[in-house]
Amino acid sequence: MNFRLLAFVFCVVASLSLPYLVYAEDPDKEVDDALNQAADAAQKMGVKMPDVKKQLEEVDKEEAKEKAALQKQLEAPGPVKLPDWTPKVPQFKADGPAVKKIVDDEVNIVQTGTSPLTPAELGDSWEAAKGDKLNSSRSNNSVNDTKTVFIYLYARSEPPEKVVLEATRAPEEKITHVKISSPLPKPEIEDED
Questions:
Q1: Main-chain dihedrals φ then ψ at residue 96, nearest 5 degrees
Q2: Which distant-in-sequence residues (6+ apart) come within 8 Å of 160 by Cβ?
Q3: Quick one: pLDDT at residue 147?
Q4: Inter-residue contact 114 to 175 (CB < 8 Å)
Q5: Is the dihedral of CA 48, 51, 56, 59 positive or negative?
Q6: CA gyration radius, the chain
Q7: I need a surface site. Which of 74, 107, 126, 174 has the fewest CB within 10 A?
Q8: Residue 74 phi, psi dihedral angles, 5° rounding
Q9: Residue 171 DSSP label
Q10: Where are the alpha helices (DSSP H) in the chain?
Q11: Residue pLDDT, tens place only, 119-142
Q12: Is the Cβ–Cβ distance between 171 and 145 less than 8 Å?
């Protein structure tokens, strides 16, 4: 009786895991197969199929150029500081000096630290400090009682400048974690022509 139960369990486990083992193919092979099927269908309809592989190679080259330009901007010498018009964060204790970081495909000046004030109080102080010279937007979030406030300030200047305050506090914490960031202008991408 136990042998039958053991054999049944083995068959169930094998039948559930076998499709995953069989399906684990090379994703590049799947892409090549799909491209070949599309080319065959286009040829049957008399439509000229663009060279998708060549287009993908061009996209990869452009992405590599963008990454190189960002890395060059990140490593460039010069002052690492937020814009002069950035409002002060009340009772802010910095973790260290401001640094350059690549965030979402752009180089940002980032300053982190803490404050005993709540995220809402920090957001209110930044909104009050913006005055009439800056545009702003605010986002108040709460996930599992962790409060986060984002304040986006935009200077009416050329080139446009932006500073973001992100203030987060978990329910069990007595301090708010603060991150202030400002993106640098996008670097020029050099052509290899």
A1: 170, -170
A2: 154
A3: 93
A4: yes
A5: negative
A6: 27
A7: 174
A8: -65, -40
A9: T
A10: 2-23, 27-45, 52-75, 119-130
A11: 999 999 988 887 777 888 999 999
A12: yes
Per-residue pLDDT tens over the stretch 71-103: 777 777 777 888 888 889 999 999 989 888 888
Domain map (residue ranges) of the chain? 2-70, 78-183
Token reading at 98: 């401001």
Q: For residue 166, give every residue at least 6 positions away whose Cβ sits within 8 Å of its Cβ, in sequence order, or none.
A: 148, 149, 150, 178, 179, 180, 181
* Nearest C-alpha neighbor of 95 from the set 79, 80, 114: 114
Cβ atoms of residues 176 and 190 within 8 Å: no
Asked if residue 175 lies in contact with residue 117, where contact means CB atoms within 8 angstroms, the answer is: no
Cα–Cα distances (Å) from 76 to 14, 70, 112, 165, in that order, read 57, 10, 21, 25
Place of tokens 């007595």: 174
Owner of token pair 């993908």: 56
Predicted confidence (pLDDT) at residue 5 exceeds the cutoff of 70: no
Joined together, the tokens standing for residue 96 give 């260290």
Distant-in-sequence contacts of 127-135, Cβ < 8 A, 24+ apart? 127/151, 129/87, 129/88, 130/87, 133/85, 134/85
Q: C-alpha distances in angstroms, 83 versus 22, 155, 179, 184?
A: 56, 10, 15, 10
What tokens appear for 95 in the block?
A: 């973790």
Dig out the tokens for 169 from the structure: 């506090």
Residue 46 DSSP class: T
